[in-house]
From TrEMBL:
Belongs to the autoinducer-2 exporter (AI-2E) (TC 2.A.86) family. InterPro entries: AI-2E-like. It is a multi-pass membrane protein. The chain crosses the membrane at residues 31-48, 60-78, 90-113, 172-202, 237-259, 265-284, 291-313, 333-354. Keywords: Cell membrane, Membrane, Transmembrane, Transmembrane helix, Transport. It is found in: Cell membrane. GO terms for biological process: transmembrane transport. This is Protein belonging to Uncharacterized protein family UPF0118. GO terms for cellular component: plasma membrane. The keyword Transport applies.
């Protein structure tokens, strides 16, 4: 009897081990399949770029960007609008939701934009002084290190400061004008997007029904299920990202202000926007803030780095787990490859959309995989 019990325990253990190995094997297979899809997309984008089709597509997408903004706004606000629509007419619920959203945005912008403009002006005026202070610091450092007579170092130093001096107040003024024109274009697209979004929000479910009618009847249930899964995954991710961005912006603005930074709102905004990019984002946003901090003073530079590190620790250990959890469920290797590929073809914008785009592809692939398995089971039965 004892031998039988021992044998039974060994069989159970073996069975559990087999299940664990099978599950890990399935995960590896899925990861490989996703990587293959990313590789195929990369190849396709390379071909489009070589054939000079990608720039044309980019121009077309930039022209119709207000439509995408409208779709995104409507898509994000649908859950809240649907809840209100149960107690009041649809048009009234849309108006209330828009008033709430626009009111909140207006309050934020009314405080942020004037202060942001003042800080940028102050920073632009301070740049020549900061460059002179940096030059004095480097000259003193070279004398102390006894490399002031090194011809190679002096050539590098001369070229460096010549390039810096080209960033004069006149060039900065041109940059500000160019940035203002870009901002006007973005605001115009956003306003158009808000208008389009309102009409899409009002007729959201009707539009969806019309789209589904274009799909063959036998595939409509699958299309609805796929849409449900993509919505569930992406909406929670996008909403979480927006909340985390706001928290990073506020935290970073406070931290940089305490550090004595010249333009805390500007660099907090840069840090918040680049924070969307996994892994690389904090560095992309933090390095410019740290450089300007050191141009102000060594203490300001050190405090800026401390602020950036503290905020990133808070984000990684508090903001992200509490607000977003593991909404995307993507392997780190997959995310990094997606960032490299999308970043190569589409720059910063590509890096921002890389994670949600890859997650959508993953949901699509898993859905197709489930359907194939289901069909195989029916055929083998």
């Amino acid at each position: 009897m004892n031998l039988f019990k021992k044998r039974k325990k060994i069989d159970e253990l073996d069975y559990n081990l087999i299940n664990e190995y099978a599950e890990s094997g399935n995960k590896v297979n899925k990861l490989l399949q996703i990587l293959i899809i990313i590789a195929i997309i990369s190849l396709g984008l390379t071909l489009l770029q070589r054939l000079h089709i990608l720039p044309i597509i980019g121009e077309f997408l930039s022209v119709i960007s207000p439509v995408f903004i409208g779709i995104l706004i409507a898509w994000l606000l649908v859950p809240l609008t649907d809840k209100l629509s149960k107690k009041m007419p649809r048009v009234l619920s849309c108006i209330i939701v828009y008033i709430l959203v626009l009111g909140t945005l207006s309050l934020l912008l009314a405080y942020t934009i004037p202060n942001l403009i003042d800080q940028v002006k102050e920073l632009s005026k301070s740049i020549p002084t900061m460059i002179n202070e940096l030059q004095k610091f480097i000259n003193n450092a070279t004398e102390n290190l006894k490399i002031a007579d090194n011809s190679t170092f002096n050539t590098l130093k001369k070229n460096f400061f010549e390039n810096l001096k080209e960033i004069d107040t006149g060039n900065i003024a041109n940059m500000i004008i160019g940035g203002t024109m870009s901002a006007v274009g973005i605001i115009s697209n956003l306003c158009l997007g808000l208008m389009i979004g309102f009409y899409l929000l009002f007729d959201y479910h009707k539009i969806c029904k019309k789209i589904f009618k274009c799909i063959p009847t036998k595939y409509q249930s699958d299309a609805r299920e796929l849409r449900k899964r993509v919505n569930s995954s992406l909406r929670s991710y996008v909403q979480g990202v927006l909340i985390v961005m706001l928290l990073v912006f506020v935290s970073q603005a406070i931290g940089l202000t305490l550090a004595g930074h010249k333009a805390p709102l500007l660099f907090a905004l840069i840090c918040a926007i680049t924070d969307i990019i996994p892994y690389f984002g904090p560095w992309i946003g933090g390095i410019p803030a740290a450089i300007v901090g050191f141009l102000i003073s060594p203490l300001a530079g050190i405090l800026t780095i401390v602020s950036i590190v503290v905020i990133q620790v808070l984000e990684g250990n508090l903001y992200q787990p509490l607000i977003m959890g593991h909404t995307m469920k993507l392997h780190p290797i997959t995310i990094m490859l997606a960032l490299l590929i999308f970043g190569h073809f589409f720059g910063i914008i590509g890096m921002i959309v890389a994670t949600p785009a890859t997650a959508t592809l993953k949901v699509l692939f898993e859905f197709i995989d489930e359907k194939i398995e289901f069909i195989n089971k029916i055929e083998n039965a």
